[in-house]
Amino acid sequence: xxxxxxxxxxxxxxxxxxxxxxxxxxxxxxxxxxxxxxxxxxxxxxxxxxxxxxxxxxxxxxxxxxxxxxxxxxxxxxxxxxxxxxxxxxxxxxxxxxxxxxxxxxxxxxxxxxxxxxxxxxxxxxxxxxxxxxxxxxxxxxxxxxxxxxxxxxxxxxxxxxxxxxxxxxxxxxxxxxxxxxxxxxxxxxxxxxxxxxxxxxxxxxxxxxxxxxxxxxxxxxxxxxxxxxxxxxxxxxxxxxxxxxxxxxxxxxxxxxxxxxxxxxxxxxxxxxxxxxxxxxxxxxxxxxxxxxxxxxxxxxxxxxxxxxxxxxxxxxxxxxxxxxxxxxxxxxxxxxxxxxxxxxxxxxxxxxxxxxxxxxxxxxxx
Length: 368
What we know:
368 residues, transmembrane, two-stranded antiparallel sheet, PTS_EIIC, protein-N(PI)-phosphohistidine-sugar phosphotransferase activity, single chain, sugar transport, globular, mainly alpha, cell membrane, 16 helices
């Protein structure tokens, strides 16, 4: 057993929830952002602003009726599997030959996983990376052995588990979306609070939404919850952190407050209650839907990705004939749910907590 422990330590193989479900999931979300989400944004910009080089076909695979064409954005989106796998491998500190070998593994796994492909990629990429790390530099022909073992083990594992994992993730996502359509008020509260809390915790709300394919009304509730946390903390802590904190949290991440939350959990009450209010307002009053990339549902106001995702969904729905057009009510709902209500509600909810001494001056200070 001691020999095994020494081998694992030498290979930097660490079996821990933090490495696999915090570090790896966070990296996976970045891989999603740099491929699928960026691709969606580029396609939308090209179509809406009539930018030729963004709408032109730059790659054609195949011939005749079976030919598949890609724009720049289309190519970005097509690389989502490799992007996630490589990001996960980097988070696991995989050596170069293992890291590059995860490219075909990620592509195959995402394809095999179907709608739940991102979650399948998470599991398969972790297993393939660790197996690759185990054999890395153990032979004199490492340049052959490591890539072959990584690719074969990864795609072999994907053939066994990618489809079931993808189907399960997709089923859970569909259930949440169905339940939100059936009970928009209560599910609006649950989804908004849970995804918002996940965004502030050191896990990836974006990866969770992507893995479950969370779109539609449920995606809108997720956007509401994330915005409540980010804008809420930004406004609530303005007296301590001023403009730098407003931007860092409002357009960056509310995760910056985790240290303060650990020291005084009561500071989490106002933005969480705000998310419980804005969630059902989004689902019941404004019928706010996220029909863009599912990863956008868990991004909130981070780089305005959540809002861009909602907009791209509107554009797609209009193009498909599902939506007649983008209305003033749509824009009003998006602005209120994303910015105005989280700011006002969180500030109001924080006032009595400061008076009661539950939140004291300095409790929300960031080291910026």
